[in-house]
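Quick log. Single chain, no ligands specified.
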Amino acid sequence: MSRPVPPGRIAFVTPDGYAAALNTDSSRTGGAETQQVRFASGLRSRGWNACLIVALSPDADSSSDLLPEWVEVAYRLREQRSRLGYIYDSLKLFAAMAKSGAGLFIQRCSFHDAPRVRLFSGLLGAGFVFWVGADYNVNREWLWSNLSAVRRTAYLDALQKADAVICQTESQRKALKENFGIPSILVPNIVDIPDRETALSSRKPEARPRALWGGRINRNKRPEELLELAQMTPEWDFLVVALRERELDSEYDGFIEGAKRISNLRVCPAVPHRRYMEMTSDADIVLNTSLMEGFPNTLLEAFARAVPALTLGIDPDGVIERESLGWVAHSTEEASGLMKSLCTEEKLIREAGARALAYVLRSHSPQVTTGMLESLLEGLQGQ
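-> predicted structure:
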């Protein structure tokens, strides 16, 4: 923390958060956007004057009449990125930030948004908080391999000059400190938990076991591992909610073509969040095949519905193995073997799901996580 920031309104800047605010389907909405909407809503429920600044989806109604009154539209997202477009959108974003009257702006995960939100916050005399959204945000090798020198320098400068940096896991805090010398504060990801414990599955006991995978089709998510796993495990049905990554149309189309050749795998396009939660409740396990994540929303949302996880290496702070919330495999062969063994071990799945639900109640509930964010904000504002 560098200085007290002005009291008053808190603004979460999340250009891709339009669909999350409306609870509609969109290929642009990911975990970072969902988290910012949840935390903004959580703060508002506790009396904070919080708002959300978004960009209008390209195919959305320009009137945006259905947005909550605390959500402001800065500009319309473009199908294709360009330097001139970025400058124009940045000017519109600055105008929206100024109009919001916020004394503190929070931005999560985005390499290209963090520098401009930090700059505009300073020009407006407001505070700036950056929120680490994924492990690659703090991974030195990834930054040097995937960002240009200009983008990397601007991003790290924004973090260095932030009034606070939030991480979602202890491993992220450690990496940020060791790699870049930047201290941070832990606020775990938030997840909405149903009012009552939901059954692992409402399907009949004789139904085939079902695994759910949701995410964007990009290299980090390793969707090819998912296809291989489904081919190796015909005993299970695989349900996939596949989101199209911006400017990666060929990868998405290639995945869809490969999926069509696998009889026990069904792909759904982007669906509203409410529908995805129904799919999660009907699954026996939720899958994750990523190389790097933070603490994925898909896992936390499954845990909140007593559905355990099976991942191909991802284990945030080691909690899945330590708390027995599911299974961590290190190859498709190992994952397939685990899934085959679980076909006749329904009790093991249900016990892991019960532990997963207890874990999120203890560590990721809105009451716990929003309270931690409140403590940080109160410290920044000198309350």
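The first helix runs from residue 18 to 22.
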